[in-house]
Design goal:
heterodimer; A: 115 residues; mainly beta; six-stranded mixed beta sheet; 0% helix; globular; B: 115 residues; seven-stranded mixed beta sheet; four-stranded antiparallel beta sheet; 11 strands
Chain lengths: 115, 115
């Protein structure tokens, strides 16, 4: 069974600073996908970044980068130059490689960016 | 990216009523999913579909049912709503781009309150 763990229920960061949101995972599949989503207070889930288990390089999308450490089974999200609009819940998720190909989500981290 | 729509966005309804939550996507994605999310908590898969006339139950036991008669449409129905059904319901569909790990894109969600 797959499991995603996010150990930081809440985080604070000053505007313009970088912040790292932690995510560890557990799976017996050799091939998997890791995702980060942002959920503002309005409720929608916004896709941020994807990392494949066989990707050699860490994924980057604008101000978002994924610090992928396969041996440690961690997939931390790094947000550079935080903005007030980054305040939201952030969810780490893993996709099954076979079968349903559904996502298993972590419990989320609430990020608050302070001016 | 998928354009995926959900209606209604908010629904307050009395116990015992039948409700249908609508979900439509315009990108021709074969795979679609329904997730349930309590406030501030992780998402749980309740239904998924590989394509027309294909539906399966997810991890979280749900009294809801789904149908997939058309590729673009994946409605969820509760025959008799109860207060325990109060939650947010999120619909998603996934693309087939291997480089993006079949990213799931979400609709805006429906927040259901059963009195």
């Amino acid at each position: 069974a797959q499991k995603i763990t996010q150990t930081q229920p809440g985080m604070f960061v000053q505007e313009k600073e970088a912040v790292t949101l932690d995510c560890t995972y557990d799976t017996s599949d050799p091939s998997y996908g890791l995702f980060w989503y942002k959920q503002p207070s309005s409720g929608e889930m916004i896709f941020l970044i994807y990392q494949g288990s066989y990707d050699q390089q860490n994924a980057t999308e604008g101000r978002y980068s994924l610090n992928f450490q396969k041996a440690r089974k961690s997939a931390n999200l790094v947000i550079s130059a935080s903005q007030l609009g980054d305040s939201a819940m952030y969810f780490c998720a893993m996709r099954e490689i076979t079968g349903r190909r559904a996502l298993t989500f972590g419990s989320g981290t609430r990020l608050q960016v302070q001016p | 990216e998928a354009d995926i729509y959900q209606t209604p966005r908010y629904l307050v309804i009395g116990t015992g009523k039948k409700i249908t939550l609508e979900c439509s996507q315009t990108m021709g994605h074969d795979k679609m999913y329904w997730y349930q999310q309590d406030p501030g908590m992780e998402l749980h898969l309740i239904h998924y579909s590989y394509g027309v006339n294909s539906t399966e139950k997810g991890d979280l036991s749900s009294e809801s049912t789904v149908s997939r008669i058309r590729t673009e449409h994946f409605p969820l129905t509760l025959e008799s709503a109860r207060p325990s059904h109060t939650s947010q319901y999120l619909c998603a569909s996934s693309d087939q781009l291997a480089g993006r790990g079949e990213t799931q894109y979400f609709g805006p969600g429906t927040r259901l309150l059963v009195l």
